[in-house]
Write a structure and sequence with these properties.
Blueprint lengths: L3 E5 L4 H13 L4 E4 L4 H9 L7 E4 L2 E4 L3 H8 L2
């Protein structure tokens, strides 16, 4: 099973879509909400990103809800 982290915010519709998609596929993930978790916000900015969602799948970053890239990384 892939190690998946999803950086989200409360007001991001694409974050909801990404989480729903992972749920549909039966993929467990760790959610890091950058609005409520200062450490998560700092971690995301340290990776060079300012927006969400950002998914990290086995160390590979996916910026935005890129279904094809998510599937590619999950199917490795």
């Amino acid at each position: 099973m892939a190690n998946v982290v999803v950086f989200t915010s409360d007001t991001c519709p694409y974050c909801v879509t990404a989480k729903e998609y992972l749920d549909e596929k039966g993929v467990s993930y760790t959610e890091k909400n950058i609005q409520t978790d200062k450490a998560a916000r700092k971690e995301l900015m340290g990776m060079g990103h300012m927006g969400v969602p950002v998914l990290v799948i086995d160390g590979e970053e996916v910026v935005g809800f890129d279904k094809a890239k998510i599937d590619e990384l999950l199917d490795k």
